[in-house]
Design a protein that fits this description.
about 280 residues, alpha/beta, Elongation Factor Tu (Ef-tu), domain 3, Rossmann fold, 2 domains, 9 helices, 17 strands
Length: about 280
């Protein structure tokens, strides 16, 4: 059991947790993740470690409530406990002084990009962050990125904040105006694919962090398999970060939709249960 030290919403349906996990906080590196089970009967879900503090023994995760489990998790508050937190898992981000490094976060992907952006800055890179969101309220970690990056650009789909457009629009402007040596892109699969297409034309090294269906985190179940460079990889142990120009995004999207029906059924049951409990309380 792991105690939740703090839990606060930072955007609609997006909650930031600080969780007591001393052994994980002491060992985790940028790019790694944990697998969480809310209770003893729940499913296991992978979540990137956004930050950690080895002094107080905590890790931070940022959760978007989309499916049944993430919504259950986002109902928890400070003082509650999470049944299982396993990690750190996956290979750490490859960090070196590339020169000018751009970290792109789409929606909650910004939380995943943040620790790697910190490491890139510490390695001596000129760091640029592009944060994307559907609208202003979905732009997260702007202040945190500004504290560690040399430049930060904001884009929103509806133009309510920052530049009106997509993260790829801002990326193209940067590529046209200066030398870009490395790009990290994390977010929805279509966004990562679009970034890969932009940088492929210029031959800019680009890395993406994949988040497929995952169960055990050890490569045994095979649920997280993806195709990279025409070869099968297991994201939990071979990744989660890969060369964006070699990822088969089309196959990845199809595999991520495998359990859509089951996920909808579970979510509907969860919402019905919540509604029933609220009625009983009234």
């Amino acid at each position: 059991m792991n105690e939740i030290i703090s839990a606060n919403f930072i955007a609609p349906n997006i909650k930031q947790f600080k969780i007591l996990a001393p052994k994980i906080s002491a060992k985790r590196k940028p790019g790694q993740f944990v697998i969480i089970r809310v209770d003893g009967n729940g499913e296991r879900i992978p979540l990137t470690i956004a930050d950690s503090d080895p002094v107080d023994g905590t890790i931070q995760i940022i959760v978007q409530g989309i499916g049944k489990t993430t919504r259950e998790l986002n109902q928890l508050k400070s003082g509650d406990f999470i049944s299982d937190v396993v990690g750190p898992l996956g290979k750490p981000s490859h960090i070196e002084n590339f020169g000018t490094a751009v970290s792109i976060g789409g929606g909650v992907g910004t939380a995943i990009a943040f620790p790697t952006a910190v490491a890139l800055k510490e390695a001596g890179n000129h760091t640029i962050s592009i944060i994307g969101g559907r609208s202003k309220e979905f732009v997260i970690l702007e202040d945190e990125m500004k504290n560690i990056c040399d430049e930060v650009f904001i884009t929103t789909d509806d133009g309510s904040y920052g530049k009106h457009g997509f993260v790829t629009d801002q990326l193209k402007e940067l590529i046209d105006s200066r030398q870009i040596d490395f790009v990290l892109a994390i977010g929805p699969i279509p966004m990562m694919k679009a970034v890969a297409n932009v940088t492929r034309e210029k031959g800019i090294p680009t890395v993406v962090s994949l988040n497929p269906v995952m169960v055990d985190g050890t490569g045994m179940c095979g649920g997280c398999r993806a195709t990279v460079d025409n070869k099968t990889v297991f994201v939990c142990v071979d990744g989660p970060e890969f060369n964006a120009h070699k990822v088969d995004f089309e196959t990845l999207m199809r595999r991520n939709q495998t359990y859509n029906i089951q996920e909808k059924v579970a979510l509907n049951e969860h919402e019905c249960k919540l509604e029933k409990n609220n009625v009983q309380k009234v």
